[in-house]
Amino acid sequence: MAGKSNKAKNKGRAFKSNLADSWESESKPLDSSPSLNGGARAVVASNGDANGVGDTSSKSPAANGVISDKVEMENLSATTSKQAEGEIHLYPVSVKTQSGEKLELQLSPGDSVMDIRQFLLDAPETCFFTCYDLILHTKDGSVHHLEDYNEISEVADITAGGCTLEMVAALYDERSIRSHVRRARELLSLSTPHVSLSTLLALQHKTAPQKVSDVKTKTPDGLGFMEDFMGSLHNLVTPIPHEIKCVESIVFSSFNSPPTYRKLVGDLIYIDVVTLEGNKFCITGTTKAFYVNSSTGSILDPRPLKPAYEASTLIGLLQKISSKFKKGFREILDQKASAHPFETVQSLLPPNSWLGHYPIPDHKRDAARAEDAFALSYGSELIGMQRDWNEELQSCREFPHNTSQERILHGRALYKVTCDFVDAAIKGAIGVINRCIPPINPTDPECFHMYVHNNIFFSFAVDADLGQISKDQGSSSKLNSWHFVDNCNDAASPDLLAKASDNTSDASAETQISDNEQATYASANNDLKGTKAYQEADVPGLYNLAMAIIDYRGYRVVAQSIIPGILQGDKSDSLLYGSVDNGKKICWDESFHSKVVEVAKRLHLKEHAVLDGSGNVVKIAAPVECKGIIGSDNRHYVLDLMRVTPRDANCTGPAHRFCVLRPELVASFCEAEAAQSSHSRPKIAGEATETPNSQNCSSHVMETPVEAQTKASEDCASAPSEAQTPGKDILLNPNVFTEFKLAGSQEDIAADETIVRKAASYLIDVVLPKFVQDLCSLDVSPLDGQSLTDALHAHGVNVRYLGRITDMIKHLPYLWDICSGEITVRSAKHILKDILRESQDHDLRPAIAHFFNCFVGNVSHVGTKGSTNNTQSKIRKKGQESHQSPLKSGKGQMRWSHGASSTKGHSAHLLWTSEGLWSYIQEFARFKYQFELPDDARIQVKKVAVIRNLCQKVGITIAARKFDLDSSAPFQTSDILNLQPVVKHSVPVCSEARNLMEAGKARLAEGLLNEAYILFSEAFSLLQQITGPMHPDVANCCRYLAMVLYHAGDMEGAIVQQHKELIINERCLGLDHPDTAHSYGNMALFYHGLNQTELALQHMSRTLLLLSLSSGPDHPDVAATFINVAMMYQDIGNMNIALRYLQEALKKNERLLGPEHTQTAVCYHALAIAFNCMGAYKLSIQHEKKTYDILVKKLGEEDSRTKDSENWIKTFKLREQQASAQKQKGQVVNTASALKAIDILKAFQAVAGGSGNASASSVNKSLNAAIIGEALPRGRSVDERAARAAAEIRKKAEARGLLVRQNGVPVQALPPLSQLLDIINTGAAASEAQPNAQANEPNGEASNSSTLNATSVGTKDTNGSAENNEDRAPVGLGTSLGSLDAKKQKSKPQATA
């Protein structure tokens, strides 16, 4: 939707506004969903400024606020002023409001009337009008009454100009007046929008300006801070903003509902209001207006009060009766107007926060909140009929999507409906688990209960083995819903239970239980992945259900939309394809088969023949157990897609029946095989071709900040379609290595098995070593368990291989810590979920606190020794005895059905001890991951990181206070604040926008800034219109736009875009997500580029806090950040602190990566530059020689980075000779700084000897890489291409005789080295650093380039990516050491002259 208000230049909370609900329910929910999204459509600035994107972003669904001037003023540099192609043309249309005010909207002929309503909903002047008609007056005098679902172009031509809109009050009805009151309440309750911490930092800096010189003394050095980040946890919680109060209370009066005789004269509702002045009013809402009636006591007096107060809106009436309300409401509007537009947008699927406010804020009375709580209906619509989710979803999929505008409408509708479904599914699942919703089959065992609520089907994910135990109790009443239940597990129906028992009858008890906890998880996860794969294949005529998996209180609930007609009567004839009885009878249908074959081609699956139970040959192209069903709407639905990829041949046996290969791996393998066969290369070619593919995936992972662990797989799940051309002949049979009988010749079957085995071998022999190599070279640098998981998935590696990978990286302790920590948390998660399931409602807080104390404290047994030991031994055997504890083995076994949850008066959780828990964790890790946790794992584990990880995986919120993690019981019951659902979903992604971003990155790599900017702008605009601004993909766009602007020299524009990325990451990923940390780092570098060093250092401090929280202080990214911080201090002349940071970074890199790692060379180079600045040339030469030695050993003498280092050595020697010559001539040479450098170095070496281990525990390479401008390889979206791109840009600029500086001023190519040295030598020692920086560019590249080159050592690509380091692309946290030198060289020549 391309509109904006000139007075209120922002669009609002398109998705969440309750007013929108009022429109929505007036018609079919499906129709409303696209329009509700209207607010999310980007407004491309019509004034043609280059700001197209910057401005656009601001005009996205921001809620009820005005875009601040600063956003309006964003200007991009001339190099990027070209507007995006396909820009929406906007035309001014003035609007006369109900109150008589006039404002102007910029509209597109394609906007719908719903879009206009959304614009008006977000403009401060009209945000409280909800019930009105829109009249369009055209130039020729004709008048048109606009219907909500009309497009403007269908009614009149606004391109001719002269059109005006008029808002005319409409009559309220019972529904619309309630929506109006809810909207009024919402406006008042939203008086405290989310404020980004970066915004707060900037505001504080603005209100208390400081001279740069003060920074030297005022800014803390921060080195000790890394060891005590526990004390900073409170900084990770958004501060509670000041609330603007307008009214004491607005509640529905107990006079409701109006008596019949008053209804006949138009009374609809009565509202009791208490104003801030203390006056109490009873307000009557009628079909025409609101007025204050004369009621005072307990008897209704409907007559208007004297003097009469009346208004067409509730807000308008309150402004008349209360001056304090009028003043407060104006403050609210002003506050929203001054906020960044993105800070007022509601996030559709916000992340869970694992930290809550401490001390706990007071819980205050709120009548409106109480009313809403009692009206809560667990996900159903509060007003009006329930939504038919399936019909909405399938209708949206059927929207035409041939033209660009159609694709936007299609994507927007689909995204909105899916997000709404997930939201409703979460509420419904909580209702199911809390027993607020009755089952539809109450006579069955509780673990098999199924629920239908709000047109969503809910079932517990039940273990196949538990099903086997209970199968005799199963009732045939489940038959009607077999597909739903089976969709989430393999054993929810009697037929399948029988099959499960056939499968496992000959397996040992040990093998059977192996799956108890896992099978249900695996089947539900795999089903969700399969559903996504089919959705993305998007074959016309083939439909999937909406699906979400909700983990809450230890239960896993699968929510799905309902196939029409499936719950009514016997639908056994609706099965057209696949099997419901595990292959005994396999159905087949020609039309269904042809569609499935289409999907199979895109997923690299083979059409093949299988035998049913009667020996009949059936040709299928999907797993046998999938089910193709025709609904009563005559649509073809495909379900139970748990094996859309073949089984993993490395994991055999019934225990591993859900172990399948990832779609990313299948795509990578087929591509590698196709390349190998087409080029007739030896096996190595397979590896070579795999590399780019995994990089692609990894870069996707990184570019796509992780949300609920799904993004990476989504990105790469689409890889098959992209890779299908080269790998089209490589097809895998999904039914090999299963219990199903394959038809065809033995040769064919053997060939099918061989290729699946080959794919599994490819995973072990090529992908895993390549992944480990990327980890070692820092091309992939995960910061925490989640980013590690995403990197694994992006490379096509299942998490079950984590133990093997951990054993392969033992030589890198920081990686071993991250990997083993993830194994520990995943193992502990299962016992915590068991405890949650077994705990009664009143025991949840104590149970969680006790578990955490066992996990990170030291809890010895409670109660009698015998019972404790007995319980612990049972727990330890959990993975070995299949029927030891039915309570633990079944996810669906409801906790309240067992009285045995306590022993001798003790709650079950109290029987756990630290020793018993860690014994279980070690056994589980051994069984599930084939990994031996060391005996001292309890002591070695990084406690904060594992607590954070575990809270995020289970949905726990703890108080943000300083915990004493060395005590035996660090957690108290009061520290547990909340238990939230953890969700996995199938929300669609916008592949078109991602393709535009990929193209933009390619242009950036070629140095084509204009084209890159246009592509990123288009992607940004597209995403804004489809998803709204609160989406990780939008954050990616903002990051790349910031990078383009940075290279174009527009530092202010880069900061604007970076600020947007930061806000989105904080809102969509979390305040402490690794991507958020990198956003703060980038922001710091941009601020530093504007010489706002104090603000930059505050952002860097935040970066260090977030990094230390995610990974602990021992990580290469921390070291890299240290180098960035050092460069900032160096730039403001505080060499003492700068050297301390550089020495600390060096110690970290030497300890974490080894003394001969290229990142260690980077540290030596940075120190050489610093000593050069201080005039200590001998130390510069000494450190640069170490750099050179490492590079020679790692890269060879011919590498460009090695040659750069050699040139630096020559430069330093030349400087030293000139300094000696000056001294001999009797010229005064200031040696104080050189002596000081030597003293500092000695002091550091002395300290390092004693406390090396203590402080040496913090490093971070991503930054480090970035610092030096190197390709950012981190587990988050490693912007390798971005960095490479930046390098290329710089290279091409230099080729044209220009050097694009970070300050944005292109300068002529530097004069020859000799001239520079002459100039430099005339300067004082204090200014020597700058010229030297120039002198360092022996090969004509900016000093940063050489620094970067030296730094780039860590890059994987030695041939092409040497240059990518040259660009201090802020991809991660990346500004290079040299960039700072380059800055100095810019500012000092004048001084020297």
Automatic annotation (TrEMBL):
Domain Clu: start-end pairs: 361-652
InterPro entries in the record: CLU-central, CLU_dom, CLU_N, CLU_prot, GSKIP_dom_sf, TPR-like_helical_dom_sf, TPR_rpt
Claim: Cytoplasm is one of the keywords in the record: yes
Localization (cell): Cytoplasm
Region (Disordered): 1-68, 865-901, 1328-1393
Positions annotated as TPR repeat: 1119-1152
This protein's UniProt keywords: Cytoplasm, RNA-binding, TPR repeat
Biased composition (Basic residues): 1-14
Main location: cytoplasm
Keyword Repeat: no
Compositional bias (Polar residues): 1341-1363
Single GO biological process annotation from the record: mitochondrion organization
Biased segments, Low complexity type: 1328-1337
GO molecular function: RNA binding
Function (record text): mRNA-binding protein involved in proper cytoplasmic distribution of mitochondria.
Protein family: Belongs to the CLU family.
Protein name: Clustered mitochondria protein homolog
Native source species: Phoenix dactylifera
Phylogenetic classification of the source organism: Eukaryota, Viridiplantae, Streptophyta, Embryophyta, Tracheophyta
